[in-house]
Write a structure and sequence with these properties.
Blueprint lengths: L1 E4 L2 E11 L7 E8 L5 E7 L5 E3 L1 E12 L2 E5 L6 E4 L1 H4 L11 E7 L2 E6 L3 E8 L13 E6 L4 E5 L7 E5 L5 E4 L1
Antiparallel strand pairs: 1-2, 1-5, 2-3, 3-4, 6-7, 6-9, 7-8, 9-10, 11-12, 11-14, 12-13, 14-15
Length: 175
Amino acid sequence: MAINYNGDITVVLDMQHRTPGNLRAFVQATLRSIRTGKSSDVRFSSTEKIEPVPMIARKMEFSYKDGADYVFTDPETYESVTLAEELVGEAKNYLVENGHVTVTFVEEKAVSIELPSSVVLTVTDAPEGIRGDSANNVQKAIIVETGITLQAPLFIKTGEKIKVDTRTGKYMERA
């Protein structure tokens, strides 16, 4: 969620409700400013009022990488949005051309990107499995089109399409 904190729009990254011993309850939150991009830890008392700011989630497609930035396009309006590498974060390992993502906006500024739970990637390098090395679910290191290295079964070959879980980064199945 996004809130208005000290006149600045911030996104809540993490939140914990705490009740220590005989003290009053409070909420410990990690906030990231949209304007500056800096994160800070803030403690709110249980009586403090906060002002929520509406967030809009839009389905978008990854178009291309422009230097260090990533360009996404709205498939309905064809508007494009350029996001910095820091905002994309680990999602860059699973972005393929025309791949669908959800981009969250607060006051017309992109604040986060959310991947689908799995993506289909093409294997670019898969060494041959060694004959007789098939004891119990033996895995080998393969490289996919985005450049990351994954562990996959021995039968996966170069050029095949595989399904990868974006939350864990693990091989799921052939696509």
